[in-house]
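hey can u check if this looks right to u? its 429 residues, i copy pasted from the old doc so theres a chance i mangled smth
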Amino acid sequence: MENPPKHSQFNIPAKKATAMNKTTSPWLLARRAAKMNPSVIREILKVTEKPGIISFAGGLPSPKTFPVAEFEAACAKVLRDDPSGALQYAASEGYGPLREMVAAMLPWQVDPAQVLITTGSQQGLDLVAKVLIDAGSRVLVESPTYLGAVMAFTPMEPEVVSVATDDEGVDVDDLCTKAEGARFLYALPNFQNPTGRTMSELRRAALSAACARLGLPIIEDNPYGDLWFDTPPPAPLTARNPDGCIYLGSFSKVLAPGLRLGFVVAPKTVMPKLLQAKQAADLHSPGFNQRMIVEVMKDGFLDRHVPTIRALYKSQRNAMLAALAHEMPSGHPDATLTWNTPAGGMFLWARLPKGMSAVDLLPHAVEKGVAFVPGAPFYADHGDPRTLRLSFVTPSVDEIHRGVAALASAITTYAHTLPSNALATTMLA
C-alpha cells in the first residue's frame, strides 16, 4: 500500500520492525517469498471489524443470497446417499457430474475434460501463474486490475505491464505496442473488479482478433458475469477463440464463497500441466462440497436463484447512486467526487478531486464510521491516488445512505486539511 495513512493499523511500528530485523533465525526464505505482500484489502477489512463501521471495502457477497435451506437439504442427501464418496479422497480434476454441469452451462462448446475444479477461482490464478510464468516473463494486465491476480503472479517474478483502458475496456492499440514477448493478457471483461466496468461488444471483438493475430493468449476471469442488472454482457472472449484462452469461473458469487469452489476451462494442450500443478497444491478440491453444489444446482436452481441476487444488488447499487448524488457536492468538477454507474457486479469506482489522495482520506473516513478501499493498489504501476472502490452489495440500504453521508463528511474534513486546495474546500464546505 503506497503511503499508508498516519496512525495506520496496517504498519509495524519502527521500533518493533527493527527488533524483528535483528532477531536471528535459521530460516532462509526463498527469493519469491520476498515478493509476497499482504493483501491491502484484507488489512483494511480488519478495520471494519471495529464496532459501528459501515464497510464499503470488502468484495463479500451479501449473506442474504446464500441458499442455506437448499444446502442443508443437499448436505443431508449427500451424506445419506454417498457418504464414502463425499468424505474420501477424490480425483484431482474434480467431481465428474460437476465438471459436466460446468461444461453444459458455458456458451461455447466445452468438453468436460477441459474443466478443472479448483479451490476457489483464486487457486486458478495461482495455477496459471505456476504453469505459464517464468522469472522475467512479460505479463499484461488491465489498468487498473484485480489485486488478487497481481498477488498470484508476483511470486513467479514476472514483468507485469499495465495496458491502458477506457470505459469500453482494454485499449487495443496500446496492447499491440506492449504484446511482443508477453506470455498472456489477464482481463476481467464483465463488471470488473475494481472498476465495475464492462467491456463492450466492439472492444471484445477487436481485442480477440488482435490477440489471435499476435499469438497472445488471454486469461479471462469471469466471477461476476452472471450478476448483470438489466441485460446480459456480451459473449465471453473465450467463446471467440477457445484455443487461445483460459477461462476462470466461480461459484462464490452465485452460491456461497465459503465453499471455496471455482473452475478453470483450458485448452487440452495446457490442461495436463494445470492438473499437475493442482495435484501438487492440494490433491483435489473438497469432494463433499462439490457434491453439495451438484445437488443444489440440479433441476435448474441457478435459473431461479441468480435473478434474486441480481434484483437485490441492483436495488443496492441504485441506493448508492442515489446517496452519492444526494450527499456529494456539486459544482466545479475539480471540487467534486465523480463515479461510474456499473451495469452489474458488486463495485462502483470513484475519483476524488485534484490534490486529494484516497489513502490519506481513509483514516478520516474510518473516524466518521465508514471504510472503503483506496484504488492505487489495484494498479500494477503508476497507481492513481485519487481513486477508490466502493462495494454496495453487503451493507443494507440504510447503511449505504448513512455510509455515503459519512464519506461525504470525511471528504469535507479532509479537504479542510489541504491549504493548497482552497477551491475544493470552498465547494465541499
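The longest strand covers residues 182-187.
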